[in-house]
Structures are given as structure tokens and as C-alpha cells.
């Protein structure tokens, strides 16, 4: 039996094979604008499309439900509408990697058609509850709604903007309106349509099939879930007479584009970093090597895909730690054994003793944004009773303050800004990540070291309604451009923790904006 509907203005027909609308769009019809960030959890919003003008999450919508209806993806919006949304998001720094924004743009277009005013911030934030964005910190996205159809930001150099984005994101990155519309060159978007598909089985083996649906069915994939277990610190604080102590929990990086690669036999695999570096989360991803091996083995192109559950179980986490520090900066930091983490901590706290300990749990990495040294900055700020200016290993400098109204004021100096919209976006995004690290983010891991929280909503990432206003002042600075947002990340973590009175466990559960 076939399902007939109108897609982006043309009549289409697909087999009713119990597929979701997202599977029908990406796998059967080759429409790559909607993205798969959590399928089929329905929790990230990256696959949002318009069904008869109403935003709908495609990964949990059976394709048979749209029979006879009109489906519009980001690719099918009217040309002028697409151009205006892409320009607005680009001008306001509302898109970095560009993975979540096609779905957000579809939702915003639904709001625009309903006449939602540009200054109705509560309505915009409420609408964004259906989405997750790890990069931008929400505020630039809200600004982009108001910028729709407005004047183009003048005298902007796309090359300079891309250079700034690459510095901040840790990987080559392009900045232009097409990125916000989903054309960032993500690995799975560029795979040949006739490629085999490989996914991990419940037992950890790679299952290869002709289609994603078949591979998932044969893999015995178990749908992710959110447990009632609490995230708890896995390491005990060392004994001592400390000015401050701190225990951190397991934290999921939460990047939206799951690890993906593809390869032709004898060829080079596509880069899983695509249009951004996931802030260090994909530095050591296995998918490229697996794609090369399976392509050579099968003599055909092979797509290799992590599910969201794979990312949680196998992707690197921020090394949890437990520490005590005295007012003079001496102390002991116990941290999950991780290559390079002791050196990272000593960059900010040279007088502490670092004890690496074995902890049952998922893999850890010192490549994640400011891992180790940002926590050390916060510890020293707590011990001395003041959060001052932070100097990052890159040479960037930043300070942060929690204002009486709960907003954040940030000052950053990182050489030539190159593009202030991009720099401001990354600084607000870094503030969002740091604020979440201190106040809300944690991953439940059992005593055997197995993550139990496997859904996007269980990670504690701050939603748009929880994110305070952020004011960024970019200071004039001589010298070449350097990364600035990592310094902002550490400065915000220190300022927020100090503002809250240095509770001894992260996440504190104390939001700046409830």
C-alpha cells in the first residue's frame, strides 16, 4: 500500500512500510533538510516540518498520518522566505553548526504565518521548548525571529566570519545563510543514495543492511529512556581542611548531530566533524575508521551511523572530579583517569595535587571544551572569594558577572574579533554550556558504569525559557585572533558558582532563571 502526499509542492508516493515521516523524507525521498538528532525520541526538534502549515516533529509522525496532506520542509519554503530566514539567522549568529536550525526555522515560519509578533519573547521561548540547540545559547535564535525580513548586516566579510567560527568551534566551519538552512555539509547528508547502512547492535556488533530501517530492525535497537535515577558524583572529596570543595557528575556533551561517516571502497571516509567540532566531542569518534573498513569489506559505499543511545553510551564525557582547595590555591583534585587532564588542570591551578583515579563509567576526554581547567578556575575563584578575569590557554581573556536581575554580563578579549556577530554567538553559547554545567546538567550512571539516561531531555541542557539574558562586551585588543569562548566558558562557570555561594556539588539545581 502506498502513501500519497504533497511534499514541498510536488506529489509524492512512498510505501507504507510503517516508516516514520522522517525516514520517508530522508531515506526514500532524498530530502535532507530535516535532520535526525534523536530518532525516534522526538525530543530534539531537528526534524521539524510543516504539515498543513502546523509544525510537526517528523521522527515520531508515522508517514501514513500525512496521507493526502501537504508537507513542507525547510527546502520547500518559498524562495524569498527561505532567503530571509537564512539571512536573519546568519546575521544574528543564530546558527553555528546549522544542524538544529532547519527545524527551528520551520517552527518559526509557522509562528510567523500565525502572526506571532517579533517582540513576543515568551511565545518564542515557549515554541522553542520543542527544540534543543547546543551551540548558540538561545538568545541569538530569539533575536533572529525579530530580524526576519530586516536589513542585511552591512560590511560583513564571510571569510573572516568563518575564520572566527573555526577558532571558536575547533574545526573548519562555514558561515553563510545556507548553513542555517541545513546545508552545512553534514556527513550523512552527503552519502550516496545507494550506500549500505551500518548501525550498532544491542550487543555492540555492526549490522549492515540495504536500508536504515532494515539495519535498525536487525540490530535489536532498544529505544532510549529517561530513568528516575539521580545523577550523582562518582568520586569522593579528598580529606583535608579546605576552603571550598567540589564534586562534579557525569555530563553528556549533548551535541545534536550524532556521529556519522561514509566511505567508498578504497576511499577516504567523510569527516564526522562536518561543519563544527562538537566542542571536542567527536575528536576520537570511531565512525570514520569503521566506514572505511566496512566499505572495503563489502565492496560498496557504506554509511555508518551512531544512534543517540550510542552517543550516550560510547561518546566521551567530561571527566568527573572531586576536589578540595585552600585559600592559597593549594589542594587536591581527584579526577577520572584521562589522558591530558592533569596537565589541563595544572594550567589554571599549578599548586594543586592531581590524583587520577579509575572510575567505572563511560569514556572521558580532555578535548571537551575547557575540560579540567575550567573547573580549576572555578575552584580557585571559590577559594579566594572572588571571580576575576580568566586567561585561557589560547590567550583569550574573559570575565563574567551575574547581575541582580539574574542576567549575565560578559567581557571578552581575543585579539581581532574578525566578526562580532559570530564571536558574540559563541560567547553566549559558551555561557549557556557553562551555566548548564554548574546548575542543571548531569547524567545518571549506575554502579557498573553504564549510563541510564539515554534521551535528549534527560541531560539537563537548559531550555530557552531557562536561559537568562546575556550581554557581551567585546574589548578592543591588538594581536592575532584567538579563541575567546573557552575563556568565557570558564569565567561564567566561576561567576555563577561564586554567585550561588559555592555549593559543593554540580549540578547545583539552582537556576538563574527558573
- At the first level of CATH, the class of the largest domain is Alpha Beta
Beta-sheet strand percentage? 15-25%
Q: What proportion of the residues is helical, as a percent range?
A: 25-40%
Gross geometry: globular
Radius of gyration from the alpha-carbon trace, in angstroms: 23 Å
**N- to C-terminal distance:** 49 Å
- Can you tell me the residue ranges where pLDDT is under 50 for at least 5 consecutive residues? none
How many strands? 17
Judged by helices, strands and strand pairing, the structural class is alpha+beta
CATH architecture label name of the largest domain: 2-Layer Sandwich
- CATH fold description of the largest domain: Aldehyde Oxidoreductase, domain 4
Tell me about the largest β-sheet: 5 strands, mixed
Widest sheet: strand order? 2-1-5-3-4
Question: Any overview of this molecule?
Answer:
The protein has 514 residues and is α+β, with helices and mostly antiparallel strands. It has 14 helices and 17 strands. It has helices at 21-28, 79-91, 101-114, 121-127, 139-147, 158-169, 177-180, 212-219, 287-298, 308-314, 341-348, 373-384, 420-439, 485-499; strands at 2-7, 10-15, 48-51, 54-57, 70-72, 196-200, 206-209, 244-247, 260-263, 302-305, 321-325, 331-336, 352-357, 390-391, 397-402, 408-413, 470-474. A five-stranded mixed sheet has the order 2-1-5-3-4, sandwiched between helices. A four-stranded mixed sheet has the order 7-6-10-9. Strands 8-11-12-13 form a four-stranded mixed sheet, with helices on one face. β3 (48-51) and β4 (54-57) form a beta hairpin. The longest helix is centred in the last third of the chain and has 20 residues, at 420-439. 57% of the residues are buried.
Amino acid at each position: 500500500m502506498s502513501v500519497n502526499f504533497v511534499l514541498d509542492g510536488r506529489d509524492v508516493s512512498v510505501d507504507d512500510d510503517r516508516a516514520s515521516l522522517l525516514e520517508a523524507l530522508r531515506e526514500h525521498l532524498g530530502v535532507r533538510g530535516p535532520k535526525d538528532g534523536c530518532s525516534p525520541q522526538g525530543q530534539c526538534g531537528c526534524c521539524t516540518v510543516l504539515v498543513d502549515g502546523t509544525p510537526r516533529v517528523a521522527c515520531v509522525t508515522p508517514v501514513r498520518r500525512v496521507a493526502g496532506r501537504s508537507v513542507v520542509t525547510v527546502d520547500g519554503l518559498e524562495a524569498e522566505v527561505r532567503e530571509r530566514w537564512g539571512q536573519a539567522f546568519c546575521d544574528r549568529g543564530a546558527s553555528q553548526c546549522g544542524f538544529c536550525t532547519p527545524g527551528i526555522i520551520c517552527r518559526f515560519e509557522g509562528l510567523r504565518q500565525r502572526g506571532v509578533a517579533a517582540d513576543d519573547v515568551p511565545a518564542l521561548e515557549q515554541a522553542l521548548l520543542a527544540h534543543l540547540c547546543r551551540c548558540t545559547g538561545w538568545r541569538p535564535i530569539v533575536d533572529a525571529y525579530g530580524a526576519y525580513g530586516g536589513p542585511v548586516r552591512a560590511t560583513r566579510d564571510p571569510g573572516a566570519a568563518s575564520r572566527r567560527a573555526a577558532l571558536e568551534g575547533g574545526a573548519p566551519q562555514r558561515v553563510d545563510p545556507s548553513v542555517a538552512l541545513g546545508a552545512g555539509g553534514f556527513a550523512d547528508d552527503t552519502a550516496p543514495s545507494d550506500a549500505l547502512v551500518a548501525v550498532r547492535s544491542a550487543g555492540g556488533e555492526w549490522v549492515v543492511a540495504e536500508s536504515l530501517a532494515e539495519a535498525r530492525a536487525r540490530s535489536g535497537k532498544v529505544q532510549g529512556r529517561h530513568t528516575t535515577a539521580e545523577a550523582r558524583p562518582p568520586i569522593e572529596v579528598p580529606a583535608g581542611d579546605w576552603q571550598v570543595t567540589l564534586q562534579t557528575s557525569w555530563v553528556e556533551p549533548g551535541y545534536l548531530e550524532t556521529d556519522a561517516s561514509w566511505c567508498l571502497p578504497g576511499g577516504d571516509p567523510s569527516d564526522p566533524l562536518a561543519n563544527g567540532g562538537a566542542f571536542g566531542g567527536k575528536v576520537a569518534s570511531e565512525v570514520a575508521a569503521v566506514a572505511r573498513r566496512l566499505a572495503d569489506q563489502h565492496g560498496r559505499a557504506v554509511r555508518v551511523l551512531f544512534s543517540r543511545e550510542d552517543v550516550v553510551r560510547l561518546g566521551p564525557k567530561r571527566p568527573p572530579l572531586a576536589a578540595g582547595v585552600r585559600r592559597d590555591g593549594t589542594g587536591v583534585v581527584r579526577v577520572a583517569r584521562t589522558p591530558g587532564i592533569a596537565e589541563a588542570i595544572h594550567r589554571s591551578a599549578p599548586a594543586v595535587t592531581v590524583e587520577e583515579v579509575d572510575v567505572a563509567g563511560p569514556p572521558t576526554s580532555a578535548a571537551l571544551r575547557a575540560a579540567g581547567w575550567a573547573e580549576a578556575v572555578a575552584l580557585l575563584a571559590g577559594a579566594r572569594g572572588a571571580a576575576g578575569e580568566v586567561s585561557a590557554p589560547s590567550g583569550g581573556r574573559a570575565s563574567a558577572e551575574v547581575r541582580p536581575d539574574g542576567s549575565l554580563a560578559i567581557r571578552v578579549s581575543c585579539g581581532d574579533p574578525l566578526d562580532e556577530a559570530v564571536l558574540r554567538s559563541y560567547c553566549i553559547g559558551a555561557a549557556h554550556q557553562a551555566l548548564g554545567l554548574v546548575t542543571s546538567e548531569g547524567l545518571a550512571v549506575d554502579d557498573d558504569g553504564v549510563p541510564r539516561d539515554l534521551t535528549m531531555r534527560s541531560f539537563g541542557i537548559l531550555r530557552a525559557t531557562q536561559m537568562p539574558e546575556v550581554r557581551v562586551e567585546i574589548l578592543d585588543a591588538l594581536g592575532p585572533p584567538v579563541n575567546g569562548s573557552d575563556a568565557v566558558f570558564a569565567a561564567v562557570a566561576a561567576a555563577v558558582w561564586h554567585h550561588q555561594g559555592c555549593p559543593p556539588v554540580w549540578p547545583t539545581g539552582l537556576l538563574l532563571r527558573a
